[in-house]
Design a protein that fits this description.
Length: 172
């Protein structure tokens, strides 16, 4: 399995506190066919291959949700003390954002309830608790991008369904 080399010196250190959580799907930048499909095999290695091809320092998301043997598993990709690079997102938002991607292409597949559940319980809810965020701070990439026709995280991804799970697993 190809693994990216760790080069934190090439990453930008976060200087401001987190105010936004932004949701993506990996199909938008990692075009290896295997990493576009939602299936039961561990697919992060294909994402890493794409990172190598793009000559990036690391995966351009802080977390990626993969599906392995029938369930969704969050993987830490870019440590969140570093920023991700999104030129289509206002720096006032991006410099304060954590980026989470679901592995696959949700222009073609409807996200299952379990994906929203894992996303909320394992990743989003701990972060909103840690940074004292209101759920209104959770955004889809298409809603904060300057690109007019961007669909990310996919036509079938619904923010309302994620917010419903976030409210279900709120940490009091
Ligand atoms: Zn995106």
């Amino acid at each position: 399995m190809a693994l990216i080399q760790l080069k934190p010196s090439l990453l930008t250190v976060r200087r401001q506190t987190v105010k936004w959580i932004i949701i993506h799907h990996t199909a938008e930048i990692y075009e290896n066919p295997a990493s576009k499909i939602d299936n039961n095999n561990y697919q992060m290695s294909y994402v890493y291959n794409s990172v190598l091809e793009l000559k990036d320092a690391d995966v351009n998301y802080h977390f990626v949700i993969d599906k392995i043997k029938g369930d969704y598993i969050p993987v830490v990709t870019r440590p969140f003390v570093y920023l991700c690079d999104w030129e289509d997102i206002d720096p006032n938002i991006n410099n304060r954002a954590i980026h989470i991607a679901v592995l696959g292409d949700y222009d073609f597949k409807i996200p299952p309830a379990r994906l929203y559940e894992i996303l909320a319980y394992r990743v989003v809810n701990p972060l909103i608790r840690l940074f004292a965020l209101n759920p209104s701070r959770i955004k889809l990439h298409r809603d904060v991008s300057s690109e007019e026709y961007l669909a990310c995280p996919g036509e079938f991804f619904e923010l309302d369904r994620l917010i419903a799970q976030v409210r279900r697993f709120v940490v009091k």
